[in-house]
Amino acid sequence: MKTLSAKNVRTGLLRVRDGHEARVSFVELFFDLIYVFAVTQLSHRLLDDLSVNGAVETLVLWFAVWLAWQYTSWVTNWFDPETLQIRIMLFAIMLVGLLMAAAIPDAFAARGLVFAAAYATIQVGRTLFVLCCLGGRHALTPNFRRMLGWLCISAVFWIAGGLSHEHRLAFWIVAVACDYFSPMTGFALPGLGRSRTDEWTIEGGHLAERCQLFVIVALGEALLITGATVAHAAQWEAPVLVALAVAFVGTLAMWWVYFDTSSKDGSEAIVHSDDPGRIGAYFHYVHVIIVAGVIVSAVGTELMIAHPDQRIAPTSLLALIAGPMLYLFGNAVYKKVVYRRFPLSHLVGLALLLVLSVFAQITDLLMVGGLTTAILIVTAAWESCSRRKAALGYQDEHASQW
To answer: Could you give the CA distance from residue 85 to residue 16 in angstroms, rounded to a whole number?
Structure first.
């Protein structure tokens, strides 16, 4: 992995690259608490407007939340969050992020401009701060200048959407596309050139751990919704308690799919890559899908516990099936990045969920929730056995060479 020379580290704010893997700091964990609230706001918003239009709007808002977190994670990968200036920057982002998250329920109503202005302030303000810290001659300066250019372009669309209620969704989709796809082109801009991923001298283990911790945040929010929904149930009858067990096991299966079979290998893949910047970018592109799957699944969980014996409607089917499908698909792509193959177990799991969606309307919410949980368990167990068998085969082959 490339390191920054002592000549470049003149600000005193950059992380020291001494060959040891950088760990996630307590201030970064504190920073993530804002996003616990944001994820909760997103799931509740989707539950309140469980329609195609509501799903698209919530998806756009989720991308904004993720991108604000993602860009900040890259900054704290380069810069040391234990320094006073970076801590102040993170605390300022937390304050504005709290306002942005609070505006989520009415982002497509009366508080659209508040949401847009808060998001643009986070993205543009953070990048300007970094450029001031770096100065004009640092190796990272050209990259952040290009980044600032694209973030300013997207900010125009965010603010335009905030001002225009009629065309808000269209403006914000364009804004999300600017922020999400511009890294794929190296933030290419006329007169400023483009960045190369091998210039993104990231600490791979730290970046992988940050993504993994956000998955934990999302799974924790799913458990919070499970507990809160049961707590508000009028009667703790058998169907409600069974739904509680199904929801808990489903969350456990999600943890199993991600953490037991690929999280450590994911860290190794990015650490030992010849181009860690490219792999790190892939991680962020993929994890937005994985966490979206958890958020949608949490909505399905709340519906299942609140109305376990209710017949399946198209809207509830969307949450109960689409959530696990998004989660398995995201994990499959993630493992394609890590292992360079699309796991068969996940393909089968996706196929089973698709079949279930065809026949789901003949039964109730609890049955569909139980079946999706069973599919996740089978997928996780299959993938876990495959990975362990592959690891044993590698060890035997390595031992025979000696």
So the answer is: 16
Kindly report, residue by residue over 217-237, the tens digit of the pLDDT: 999 999 999 999 999 888 899
Structure confidence at residue 5 (pLDDT): 41
Nearest of 230, 246, 298 to residue 41 by alpha carbon: 298
d(CA 188, CA 183): 8
pLDDT at residue number 22: 67
57-82 confidence digits (pLDDT tens): 999 999 999 999 999 998 998 888 98
Report the interhelical angle of 52-78 vs 84-102 (nearest 10°).
170
> Do the Cβ atoms of 294 and 222 come closer than 8 Å?
yes
- Report the pLDDT value the prediction gives residue 341, as an integer from 0 to 100: 85
Q: Which residues does the chain have with pLDDT short of 50?
A: 1-10, 19, 394-402
- Residue 381 CA to residue 396 CA, distance in Å, equals 22
Which amino acid type is present at position 230?
Answer: V
- Residue carrying structure tokens 């799913």: 222
Q: How far apart are CA 300 and CA 302, in angstroms?
A: 5
Find all residues with CB under 8 Å of 25, minimum gap 6, and list them.
76, 81, 82
Contact (CB, 8 A) for 361 and 305:
no
Q: Are 290 and 41 in contact (CB under 8 A)?
A: no
Structure tokens at 64: 């904004």
Q: Please state, in angstroms and rounded to a whole number, the distance separating the CA atoms of residues 324 and 24.
A: 29
The one-character DSSP state at 399 is H
CA angle, 253 then 258 then 262, to 5°: 135
pTM over 0.85: yes
N residues, the chain: 402
What is the H or E stretch that residue 31 is in?
helix 26-48
